[in-house]
Backbone:
């Protein structure tokens, strides 16, 4: 039996194993997934890497593949938002997401715009924040993960956890789908960003091979949606 090669955004890694396990039980089809920043994965598909289905953390990369006739169809299948993670020693009883981001002494870690949609969403959030509050965040931001030359996050670690506990950043802007897992780390505090100021991340599928149509159908099904919700994604 052939195996469907899948490329998926790194932020899907935690939920992907249960998703694929359920898909394979229901269909008998097998998958093999490689993870990475969605922008870099798109470049690999453009360069000819075999891919039956591409799961991106934005809609732009799948749409680009469709326009290049490297995808048969594109569809949104999940959503996400942003949250703020802080080193516990930077937090006191009065701390909020706003006071922490407004503190010029705190270094902000981010993913890399262009290569990783998380970086693009973060820069969009920064622009809105600066326009609303008149406080510049982009000059304090350090693009630490998600780029072609970025350090690799150690196995078993979440990016925010590793960057903060290793002293590379005091704060990290990342996806809210990680919030529950990060909240278990005693050295970290996770802060919600109010919806008024938050960014909606739309995840898209690019069907690149008709043989992966059952997988596309599964990922847009109610069963998959329930798993995504359990792992902190939004409908």
Residues:
């Amino acid at each position: 039996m052939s195996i469907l090669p899948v490329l998926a955004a790194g932020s899907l890694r935690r939920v992907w194993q249960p998703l694929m396990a359920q898909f394979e039980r229901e269909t008998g089809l097998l998958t093999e997934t490689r993870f990475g920043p969605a922008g870099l994965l798109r470049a690999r598909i453009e360069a000819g890497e075999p891919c039956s289905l591409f799961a991106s953390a934005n809609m732009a990369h799948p749409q680009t593949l469709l326009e290049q006739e490297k995808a048969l169809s594109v569809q949104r299948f999940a959503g996400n938002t942003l949250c703020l993670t802080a080193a516990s020693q930077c937090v006191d009883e009065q701390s909020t997401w706003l006071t922490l981001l407004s503190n010029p002494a705190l270094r902000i870690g981010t993913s890399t715009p262009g290569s990783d949609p998380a970086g693009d969403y973060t820069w969009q959030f920064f622009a809105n924040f600066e326009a609303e509050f008149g406080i510049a965040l982009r000059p304090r931001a350090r693009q630490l993960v998600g780029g072609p030359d970025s350090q690799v996050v150690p196995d078993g670690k979440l990016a925010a956890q590793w960057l903060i506990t290793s002293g590379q950043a005091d704060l990290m802007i990342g996806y809210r789908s990680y919030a529950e897992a990060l909240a278990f780390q005693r050295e970290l505090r996770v802060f919600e960003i109010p919806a008024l100021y938050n960014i909606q991340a739309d995840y898209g599928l690019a069907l690149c091979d008709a043989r992966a149509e059952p997988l596309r159908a599964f990922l847009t099904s109610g069963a998959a949606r329930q798993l995504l919700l359990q792992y902190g994604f939004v409908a």
Residues 4-79+202-231 form a domain with the D-Maltodextrin-Binding Protein; domain 2 fold (CATH 3.40.190.10). The radius of gyration is 18 Å. The chain has two domains: 4-79+202-231, 81-197.
